[in-house]
# Entry
Amino acid sequence: MNVTIYTPLDPTLIGGMRTWLDSFWRPIARSGSIALRVVHSGTRPSSESAAYSPLTGVPWTVREIPGRAMPGTNAKLPAVAELAQAFEGSDVVYVDNGYVFQDWTALRAARSVRARVVSGHHSVILHDNASAEGMLHNAAWLLSGRRCIPRFDAVHALNETDAAYLRSCGARAAAVIPLPVDRTVFAPGAKNAAFTVLFAGRLHRQKGVDRLVRLVEGYAARDPSVRFRIAGAGAEESRLRGFAQRETVTLLSALPRERMAEEMRSAHVLAAPSRTETFGFAAAESLSSGTPVVCSDTHGFRDLIDGTNGTIVRRPDAADAWIAAIEALRRDPQQYRSMCERARTSTARLAIEPLARDMLAFLGAR
# Structure
């Protein structure tokens, strides 16, 4: 099967799409079960501060299609004819549907080469309107995007809430297939001597960096024995500069996978204060590492965190709510050990092999 993944995003951006390509599609493509190509339009959000790193030794071809910048967004929109040329020979085209008007453009291009076309939703469908870009995205989706959804052969969602909404928009064959975790790399190990709270992700408003700052400040006043380790890079790095000289806080850059796995298994808790998550790679990797997650209430986290492997914070802008959730784990060692065990077992469904079978069956379905 010849599979083309089209994403506006430059795949060297360290984030969810890159992780999906690297951890999920790399072994599938190497197995020889598909011939894979990745097509993108060079979109680079927060280009001055986000982290980019080459994907080396990949078992697929990569092609960048020039596109025109979309006013009010970071997205670049290619011409249908050029995109169709890049799709030639595809049995199926998977469209990452994260930016305005990409859906219609990619759908028309895929139809012109007679490929089956799937809409994938790795990013937030409706934003919180906190920015001009979010407002433009929402307006475009409500006027155009949701009307396009029934025209795809199938729709891939990462969580049940998004899938239900897409079905209400008329989506055909809407499937929930979560993202995989490499459970051999992200595995339990010894915890740090000092109680450690880890944050791992892009330093961006979406990831709740401002909430993280309030949490660190709250613990500094309450219990300075708690240690924080913050791994990531991005647009809001400046918010953390004041912590650089603090003994209780360690600032790390964006880490390679093996190094991040060490951080995950040795931490006691992962704090995930995101405003939106369609899945939550860091949370899933932390759970696989036997580390419970304390997180905000998002569509993706609801599918991962069930109360036995972590805690959902219902007042995410209140530092005391985060502290209370973390302290509840510290005060009950027996419950904490149980949560660590449950965290690991809850990710059995996220193993790469069964999800790969599900995805290939989904893409090849007629």
Q: What stands out?
A: The mean pLDDT is 92. The longest strand covers residues 35-43. The chain is about 40% helix and 20% strand. Residues 151 and 171 are 8 Å apart (CA to CA).
